[in-house]
Amino acid sequence: MKKYLLLLHEDIEKMQKLSPKEMEELTNSHMAWAEKLGKSGHFISGEGLEENSVKISGKDSIVKDGTFLESKEMIGGYYLLQAKDLDTIIELAKGCPCHLWGGTTEIRPIMEYEE
Fold it and tell me: If you count DSSP H runs as helices and E runs as strands, how many of each does the chain have, helices first?
């Protein structure tokens, strides 16, 4: 099966305004969805990501703190999934709970290398 990275793009302002109860609902929705994907054999791994990050660039390895996206969005998490083809992943991704809170998903196929 091929592997795909599903990136979860979240609206930073919306996420910061969620109540503790809404955050719990969001977390529970993701846990339930991941469990469903696991039972169907598509789930490999997945995690939520903190808002802040560190960027290292150039030959001098300059380190910068930040959130580096120039928009209101952040990558709030990811799922590493597997399926026979992209169409299957697209159908699975439509059920991602982040869509319920205004988020979007991006699918990136994992490059395959011959051994």
Answer: 3, 6
Distance between CA atoms of residues 83 and 101, nearest Å? 26
Total-model pTM: 0.82
**Helix or strand holding residue 81 (H, E):** strand 73-83
Do 103 and 10 touch, CB atoms closer than 8 A? yes
Which letter, b or e, does each residue of 47-76 get, where b requires 16 or more Cβ atoms within 10 Å of its Cβ?
A: eeeeeeeeeeeeeeeeeeeeeeeeeebbbb
Tell me which H or E stretch contains 72: none
pLDDT tens by residue, 42-51: 999 999 888 7
Q: Please answer whether residues 69 and 52 qualify as being in contact, where contact means their C-beta atoms are separated by less than 8 angstroms.
A: no
Q: What is the CA radius of gyration of the chain?
A: 16
Does residue 114 sit in helix, strand or coil?
coil
- The token pair at 32 is 């339930």
